[in-house]
Automatic annotation (TrEMBL):
SMART domains assigned to the protein according to its UniProt record, in alphabetical order: REC, Trans_reg_C
Domain of life: Bacteria
Keyword annotations from UniProtKB, A to Z: DNA-binding, Phosphoprotein, Transcription, Transcription regulation, Two-component regulatory system
Cellular component annotations (GO), alphabetically ordered: cytosol; protein-DNA complex
Occurrences of domain Response regulatory (ranges): 2-117
Record's protein name: Response regulator
Residues the record lists as 4-aspartylphosphate modifications: 51
Pfam families, A to Z: Response_reg, Trans_reg_C
Species: Pseudomonas coleopterorum
Molecular functions per Gene Ontology: phosphorelay response regulator activity; transcription cis-regulatory region binding
Domain OmpR/PhoB-type: start-end pairs: 125-219
Entry annotated with the keyword ATP-binding: no
One annotated GO biological process: regulation of DNA-templated transcription
Residue ranges of DNA binding: 125-219
């Protein structure tokens, strides 16, 4: 899952970075509203964490601009130092999906992110289950036929992307964007390597290569 953090407080941004990377999210970070508006026009994110007091374009203006584009329904969680009720109402009315008042607990942040992602994927169920594989976003645990399977954070993330829509091809571009964001994949974490590892752990039938396009998970026969 690729998350865009828009926050000019560097210490806070670093804290969020450590917390979310540990959970296997891909986190891209920008410090001002204008760069963020540009990134949101050009690239695809699964979720946005938005501070309101930002240089160059404030968070509320950015949110209004984003929602005025109509087709961009990316979930937005507002991180605000302002706990005035009026600000919260304005944020929600401008198109935010949820908010947290600083200082907040990182466990609460993680839980709210999971809930927003679940909703944006049209699920009420917290677990993803398909063809004997169960994936739990709250614990990042994967089971195959009720047996735990150990995964690296990158392997987990890739499987998660594929299991959101079983049977549907996910393109290589989309997977790369979700897994690496603006970072480099590094030699040990290329898509091919990760797919190879997942097949070894979960059976060779689960993930099907669609040549020249991408991958999809399939019901094993
Ligand atoms: Ca700020």
């Amino acid at each position: 899952m690729r998350v865009l953090l828009i926050e000019d407080d560097r210490a806070l941004a670093r804290g969020i970075h450590v917390a979310l990377r540990g959970e296997g999210y891909t986190l891209d970070w920008l410090e001002d509203g204008q760069s963020a508006a540009h990134a949101l026009r050009c690239e695809r994110f699964d979720l946005v964490l938005l501070d309101l007091g930002l240089p160059r374009l404030d968070g509320m203006a950015l949110l209004r601009e984003l929602r005025s584009q109509g087709e961009n329904a990316v979930p937005v969680l507002v991180l605000t130092a302002r706990d005035a009720m009026e600000d919260r109402i304005q944020g929600l009315d401008a198109g935010a999906d949820d908010y947290l008042v600083k200082p907040f607990d990182v466990d609460e942040l993680k839980a709210r992110i999971r809930a927003l992602l679940r909703r944006s994927q049209g699920r009420a169920q917290p677990l993803l289950e398909f063809s004997g594989i169960t994936l739990d976003p709250a614990t990042q645990q994967v089971h195959r036929n009720a047996q735990p399977v150990s995964m690296t954070p990158m392997e987990y993330q890739l499987l998660h992307q594929l299991m959101i829509r079983p049977g549907v091809v996910v393109t290589r571009e989309r997977l790369s964007s979700a897994l690496y964001g603006w970072q480099d994949s590094g030699p040990g974490n290329t898509l091919e390597v990760l797919i190879h590892n997942l097949r070894k752990k979960l059976g060779s039938e689960l993930i099907r290569t669609v040549r020249g396009v991408g991958y999809r998970v399939e019901q094993s026969r």
